[in-house]
Amino acid sequence: MSRDCPSQTMSLVGSAGSGTQSQNSVGSNGRGADRGRGRGRGRGIGNRDGNHPVSVGTRGSGAQVTQGQTQARIYNMTREEAPASNDVSGTILLFDIEVYVLIDPGSTHSYISSELASKIPGKNSHLGYNLMVYLPVGGGVMVNSVRKGSIVRIGDVNLHVDLVVMDLKEFDVILGIDWLAQHRAVVDCYKKEVMIESSGKPKVVFVGDRQVVPVCVISAIEARQLMLEGCDAYLAQVIDAEKVNPTLEEIPVVRDFPEVFPDNLPGLPPHREVDFTIETLPGVAPISIAPYRMALVELQELKKQLEELLEKGFVRPSI
């Protein structure tokens, strides 16, 4: 599924003589100061229904902040939920600093955490109006600072973005529809990719984090129990077709006696016409002798014989 960037919606709200202008925006904000974890990473909050904008910014004095009669659906997401969602998240370079970014077409503005804003070049400037960003838990936050002309680097392409400064928790930067529309971006939700064809710049594709499919592993005991219950089981044999046969120099013991073995070892010895077997009488179990403790004299004699064989080189230590 690919989606093009929708255009931002603007609405004018006012009365005769007031000249008050209102701008719709859906932004992103953190969990709140009481959660207080992470380093300036915040949740992405987006409006998924373009017909029902949520947050309002005002110019001038005497303007009243109001919310539409139809409650918009507010998007709320954490860093762990990002790979499984329809949005794209990953790591990019902001002024040559690696930052974790959420690309959310449902957000009409782009944001940067206040902590990260203090570490990058440049200074904050005033938006020229107050922007109200509604929170998923209710209420809203008024912001009016922006970091203009920030440079986002994707691949070998530098892209400019104006970032509204907010207190974010889960993400360092949130890139909204304003940045996507500016650089003619197309978001592929399925592949977690963003294709950017900015005017006068080469085409570049940003690949976000993908959801990792867990490895399906069961124990041998569980597999045996399932087979006893009637489940089907299949045995797969994997052969490495590119495996190279070992040489004499690579095999221990064999390399010490090259005159005994052929130059090439194709594999196991060939099948013999007559198999070596020990035949027993029908119904007779194989001979089994229980181990017993050796007498001290026998143990000393065995130790002496092993030492002699070891000195002559007939045997070698197993460790």
From TrEMBL:
InterPro entries: DNA/RNA_pol_sf (IPR043502), Peptidase_aspartic_dom_sf (IPR021109), RTL1-rel (IPR032567). Gene3D superfamilies: Acid Proteases, HIV Type 1 Reverse Transcriptase, subunit A, domain 1. Residues 1-26 have a biased composition (Polar residues). Residues 1-68 are annotated as: Disordered. CDD domains: retropepsin_like (cd00303). PANTHER family: LDOC1 RELATED, RNA-DIRECTED DNA POLYMERASE HOMOLOG. This is Gag-pol polyprotein. It comes from Sesamum radiatum.
